Amino acid sequence: MGKIASIEYFRVPPRWLFVKITDEDGNVGWGEASLEGHTQAVEGCLDAWIERYIGYEADEIEHIWQMCWRTSFYRGGPVFMSALAGLDIALWDLKAKKLGVPIHQLLGGKLRDKLKVYAWIGGDRPSDVKEQAEARKKQGFTAVKMNATEDLGWLDSPAALESSVARLQTVKELGMDAGMDFHGRVHKPMAKQLAAALEPHHPLFIEEPLLSEHIVGIKELSQHTSIPIALGERLHSRWDVRPFLEAGCVDILQVDIAHCGGISELKRIAAMAETYDVALAPHCPLGPIALAACIQVDATSANFAIQEMSLGIHYNAGSEDLTSYVKNPEVWNVKVGGYLELMNGPGLGIEIDEEWVRRESKEAKAWVSPGFIGPGGEIREW
Hints:
Strand content: 15-25%
Radius of gyration: 20 Å
Shape: globular
CATH superfamily of the largest domain: Enolase-like C-terminal domain
Low-confidence stretches: none
Distance between the termini: 46 Å
Helix content: 25-40%
CATH class of the largest domain: Alpha Beta
Number of helices: 12
Largest sheet: 9 strands, mixed
CATH topology of the largest domain: TIM Barrel
């Protein structure tokens, strides 16, 4: 046992927030509390919790998790749960490293030695899809994800959907699979048409076909397409996930470990999803700590399907990448068939370069979420 001596956080490029916990014996754990576009809000929550949890037993991860959840009165939501994720992941890393084992050993042991992964191509205005997909193929990936559309009006011209089909066809012609991310930017009148147009070309999945607040619409859409429905990045706890499982409208659950309370909650959500025959494919266009944490849960989950990773994602262009901040970036090398080998080092299995983290965190700016404005001056979903 060892009491928490310090909790620090570091805002680092391109848009990540790392957390470091040190116990009184000098044991260290790293977590990630990144919440894209809302860094300052998470930092404010961490400030309050840092003051509160200094002196708590670092080994008592579940006790600290439940304290954050049950004594806050107001609970859940992206800010609280991202801050909690930062603490939770760091505590698991600290405990496992102290014991000299990977986190997956503390979660019951691995079910697999390698994990299927996919990467992004294109940005918010995708172009040169063939070139980007070929580059991913050379890296070892067999599956990619791209935005299904540019910004759309509530009711737009059906012609606006033609490029989506063409881009999916381009990737399929290379012998690769592609997930199509609607990103919640497509409203019901267009989502129905887009799903129907994509279906003959067999996308890997369609992601966030509607915003999560429209569960009835998502259920209706799921009943009219054979394409797997994927969602979950804006669901922040098992209580948020439950109605989607009960409605039978999700096939692939994409909860984000950095937004849902960390390793502890993702493991519970994975088990919950398994009882509904729903696959686990954690959302993770984030940093190396979040990805390493996802992999620890993926390795122990029977219903794990595929893992998103942010290697070379457009947000990282000209900035730090997934290989930054770690001293063993080779763990992110994609192997033949589109797999990552399971890390078996202690804790998260990555070695954080603290000197690099501290240097890059100096005067780091908080990332601001972009937005779309339509031709009439109206605000569109990003």
